[in-house]
Amino acid sequence: MVDEKDFALLTDLYELTMCASYFGNKVKGIAAFDLFIRDLPQNRSYFIAAGLEDALNYLKNLKFNDEHIKFLKSKKIFKDGFLNYLKNFKFTGDVFALPEGTVFFPNEPILSVTAPIIEAQLAETFLLNAINLQTTIATKASRVVLAAKQKPVVDFSLRRTQGADAGMKVARASYIAGCAGTSNVLAGMKYKIPVYGTMAHSFVMAFEKEEESFEAYSKTFPDASTFLVDTYDTLKGVEKAAVATKKLENQGHKLKAIRLDSGDLASLSKSARRILDKSGLSHAGIFASGSLDEYKIEELLKKGAVIDAFGVGTAMGVSKDAPYCDVVYKLVELSDHGRLLPTMKLSKGKVTYPGKKQVYRIADKNGNYAKDIIALRGEKTNGQQLLAKVMEKGEIICKMPSLEKIRETTKNNLSKLPEKYKQLKNAASYKVETSRGLIKLTLKLNKTIREKV
Fold first, then answer.
1. Which residues contact 64 (CB under 8 A, 6 or more apart)?
2. Distance between CA atoms of residues 368 and 418, nearest Å
3. pLDDT tens string for the chain (453 positions)?
């Protein structure tokens, strides 16, 4: 994983070259940037905000050390004046943000950064990276959790995520979204997330007989054994697990569960349940894994699968069907020498809204989410304000919530989002309006810009 002390250079080169040009040309205006997602990926109807804690810690601790300056100087593209500026660099801006766990929609700012333009510009790459990954995964994981219908889901994705850092962030984001825990032991330690594990096929194959592997494992973990039963013949494996469990129970212990990892999981789970119940093991659960995602889990439950919990790996850990969000960081306002200059982009298909903003959420009489309004900050609008000030003059001014608190925020938000917006496919489109003030400013600025070009 990247050492946090090197995060200053975890950026695109053009961020530094633009900043060098701002510095050289004495561009010192205060800039406001919005970080938002343009569009919903296919089969997505909402997003779950995640990654704010990393974003704020980055901004608070951002600095260039001697090694960084030496490297940049070796490129022979930066002047000494700019490098000297970087030696004393500190982020001094303000940040408004959606709390982690908040349900949100396209074009709504996730972060709003206001700072001297060099500081605000330099933050772009890291902020996009941090918010993109964790929001993508939290959104995917929330769909998996919803599909499981309150049955526990465990993150099994570490071996398939895109590197060690991604593996950690995936465990965190999936827990925020409602997963019961993770197989990632380091994430368990660092984030205080419950950790889960069973056994691999290699463990079963390491013994001459399948039942010997069960007996050996239960001897080591008499009160926490989950037997993987599909290495050879699944239903025979269940029968052998039942026999091995009798020895376990004679010693005063109980089998926790069996795991199904392949085949027709719906049919096998029903047959396995009958075998377990007939053997007096009605207390033993059935845990399922094997290339699962929200679509497969939904289908399994529709078929009446008798499964008590799910282990979900690759598809969730890389958000297989939508592996990224179209997240962007755009300049929306610039003030210079007392002049306020709202800005907007007019590129085809990439038009942006100008000005600093607030997002208001309107609920119906039952407290369920009905629509959102994107408005100018300070504009009088009904509804709950979603963006909160979290950083002032480069210092974090909010208490960072625990993962349990963020997890509760996600659960609460999703409970207030009507079911029609949470369908896995063909979900209804949530209504997001723009305020009168924002529309007026957008039209005015659009006209002004076009007259100049």
1. 8, 9, 86, 87, 89
2. 7
3. 688 899 999 999 999 999 999 999 999 899 999 999 999 999 999 999 999 999 999 999 999 999 999 999 999 999 999 999 999 999 999 999 999 999 999 999 999 999 999 999 999 999 999 999 999 999 999 999 999 999 999 999 999 999 999 999 999 999 999 999 999 999 999 999 999 999 999 999 999 999 999 999 999 999 899 999 999 999 999 999 999 988 888 888 889 999 999 999 999 999 999 999 999 999 999 999 999 999 999 999 999 999 999 999 999 999 999 999 999 999 999 987 667 676 777 776 777 889 999 999 999 999 999 999 999 999 999 999 999 999 999 999 999 999 999 999 999 999 999 999 999 999 999 999 999 999 999 898 888 877 776
Please name the amino acid found at residue 321.
D
- Residues near 166 by Cβ (< 8 Å), separated by ≥ 6? 133, 317
Question: Which of 287, 295, 267 is closest to 180 using CA atoms?
Answer: 287
Q: Which amino acid is at 421?
A: Y
Domain spanning 4-137+325-452: CATH 3.20.20.70: no
Contact 311, 286 (CB under 8 A): no
Euclidean distance between CA atoms 210 and 214, whole angstroms: 7
Residues in CB range of 137: below 8 A, 6 or more apart: 50, 169, 170, 173, 174, 177, 316, 317, 319
In which residue are the tokens 């959606």 written? Answer: 98
| CATH tag, 139-317 | 3.20.20.70
Residue 104, amino acid:
F
d(CA 432, CA 40): 13
**Model pTM?**
0.95
- Residues 72 and 81: beta-carbon distance below 8 Å: no
For the chain, give every domain's residue range.
Answer: 4-137+325-452, 139-317
Bridge-based pairing of strands 30-37 and 103-104 is unpaired
- Residues facing 153 on adjacent strands: 310
The residue length of the chain stands at 453
CA distance 37 to 327: 4
Instruction: Report the distance separating Cα 181 and Cα 192, nearest Å.
Output: 10
